[in-house]
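Complex record, three chains
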Amino acid sequence: MFEIQFASLGEFFSMGNYAFNVWSVYALFALFFVINIYFPLVRRKQILKEQKRRLLLNAEAEESRTGSS
Amino acid sequence: MVERIDSRPRSSTTTTAFVATLKRELILAYKRKHDVVNPFMFFLIVATLFPIGISPEPERLSLIAAGALWIAALLASLLAMDNLYRADYEDGSLEQMLLSPQPLYFMVLAKNIGHWLVSGLPVVLVSPLIAYMLSLPEGSYMTLFLTLLMGTPVLSLLGSIGVALTVGLGSRGLILAVITLPMSVPVLIAGTMAVTETQNGASLAGYLAIMGALLLGTLTLAPLASAAALRISVS
Amino acid sequence: MWTWFHQLGSPKWFYELTGRWLPWLVAAMSLLLLVGIVWALLFVPPDYQQGNTIRIMYIHVPFASISLAFFPLMAIAGTVTLVWKIKLADMIAKTAAPLGAWFTALALASGSIWGSDIWGTWWIWDGRLTSMLLQLFLLIGVISLRSALEDTDAAAKACAVLSIVGCINVFVIKYSVDWWNTLHQPASPITTSGEGPNGPEIWVPLVIMIFAIYLFFAVALILSTRNEILQRERRAQWVQDLVRTA
């Protein structure tokens, strides 16, 4: 059950002449993984940054208004 | 979806509302003839494009005749859907309909039936002629006619949901197609299969039963969804 | 009772709960994915008919099986949105639609790459492929309706209705396409040989991959839903506190 099915690295990459089929599916999976896990994380950073900026701006506006009046 | 505030017997008023809505739809269609004629012309033109695009040979045409007619009917129904609620939405009568105490379900149903009578039925009625021009095999005319007669109301009822969802949008031609076309696949399959399989000797009754089931299912469920969608779009 | 139900559906509650769960979910997902992929690529014996293309199954089958869950999920979320007006349900429904489109697209692509060798072509109008394709179209319909409607509340309700209609439709389409297909051509050459007569060396890694992809689905859905919460609840005090400390 736990024997590596390939004799060499080259054989592993060629996948018994199905290199394109097998590796393209796994590559698509990797792409999909990045899009659906990494992108939301990046987006989260953006959202937090943007909202923090907005909060600071609001606070400044509030301060200047109360300061001047 | 339909909220009844009091519990007075209102079956008679419901019927009146149903008939009134249906009548109004037919009168409006009579006054706006282009809305009736355009889908019909569209059907004829699309059906004419098939022999030009594929082949004028009768043998080849007879293979695709049923499918071509069904697709033309499907597109014509989609095109016609656009004016189901649009004018009523713009002049405010849709809002009046939503505010009226009558169950919205029946009024939506009446609108759908009225709309089908003026835009779907002409297409069905002319279909044998077009089928002849596309060299549909003899013996399939009745099948095609009956399945179109039962199938085009399903297309209208399904399309009504899509129109109700998008009635408030400015440009919605494409989004309506994206929403409703995939939904009409079962009808398309049942309709074209009935034609090809009865040619191979299958009995028509089974296919009519399937078509009837699809019709009954959408007749009961689709107006509910349309009514709910209208309430969302107009509020 | 209902206050409890609404509390359960509050975005804040969801955000905090998933915040606690996420590390564990990510850890379990990474572990299972690593084990599953290494096992599938290195240790699974080549199939006597399909050779090494059998390794595609370990991606395709989990994705295909989860793709079927999206419309029921969106329909349930839609019902909750319409009946109880719980905002969280719509946030989940909103993030589920594009994720479902991705899952369906990957299931389709991997299926067609897997089948390309057996069928000799990249695409055939096989029953499963066809109904998957139509499901993808329906999902795209929901996404485009959402983006077309500007008002968040109206978009939520409209998409809820469309998801419920779409869910019923997916089942009708599935049955009708299967029926259409069995009368048109022989049964699909892809029969999931996973759990059949084959030994555990085939199906154990498949089960691992299925669990891994389910966790992946959960993590991806949670991550996007949390983003959605941060955006829609940006005026809530707890989000502002969170933003300040971030």
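Note: The CA atoms of residues 5 and 60 of chain A lie 65 Å apart.
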